[in-house]
Amino acid sequence: MPKPLPVLRRPKAPGDALFLKRILSALILAPLALGLTWWGGHAFSIFVAAFAAAMGWEWVSMSERTAPPRAFALATGTAVGAALLATQAPVGWVVFWIVCGTIGAGFDRKPRGGVGEAVFGVAYIASAVAMLVWLRGHDAYGLDRIIYVFAVVWAADSFAYLVGTWIGGPKLLPQASPNKTWTGFIAGLTFGVLAGAVVMYFAGGSLWVGGAIALPVAMSAVIGDLIMSLAKRRFGVKDAGSLIPGHGGVLDRVDALMLAALMAGFLFALNPSLWPGGAPS
Q1: Fewest Cβ atoms nearer than 10 Å: which of 1, 89, 153, 246?
Q2: Which CA distances in Å does 189 have to 56, 157, 169, 183, 270?
Q3: Which of 40, 48, 238, 31 is nearest to 127 (CA)?
């Protein structure tokens, strides 16, 4: 008598639960972030400050497993203060706050070693969050400018991942991330430039200017991602934290945005007329 045919079952995909968590987190955080970005003002700066505190905490946790409470206080305090001051204080005061906090973090870390890691982390995080707040609120074009930065970063980050995953190719920087490829890097730059050109056009500017500005911003997004990957490799961790289910830590989600925001802010501060309607240089 022939044996009955085996019942075929769909194998469980180990990534299904993780993928679901990522989707749910994105559905909650994305509307919140976009809504507060549109609202602007103190609401946006407080939102950024809250995430800045998490970023400072994650950096200290990664770079020094047995850090004392004052190390966390210095990192989070500097980052939160930078975000809040950027809303209304002159730029000089924001820079002064970041410099003092960074020096304090360095002196605190010196007896335990790793001064460079503490100084870099505090200065980088505080400067990035301050620049985000400045980009959104420093003039009448803040909303347009930060949408521009978001569009460039999201396009560069998303298409670098998608194309790099689908096509593959030579590795970009294996010591930082074994999954990033030159194919993804080129795709990220291409779509980042296209996104910047389109947003600039709808804001009343030139496609060519929008694309030209987007190139260094998109490149900064890729480099920012690699910087955080190198940091996690150095500290021997897979994720910067676990605050966002399915995504890891805040630093894991905004690594590309941080350096891109600094680059965009530098370009627009250097020549405000790059943005349509901005002050003449």
Answers
A1: 1
A2: 29, 9, 16, 10, 23
A3: 48
The answer to whether residue 147 scores a pLDDT higher than 60 is yes
Amino acid, single-letter form, for residue 262: L
Q: 154-158, 229-233, 261-265 — which one is most confidently predicted on average?
A: 261-265
B/e letters for 87-101, b = 16+ CB within 10 Å, e = fewer, are beeeeeebeebbeeb
Q: Distance between CA 101 and CA 157 in Å, rounded?
A: 31
Q: How far is 200 from 231, CA to CA, in rounded Å?
A: 33
Residue 110 CB: number of other CB atoms within 10 A? 12
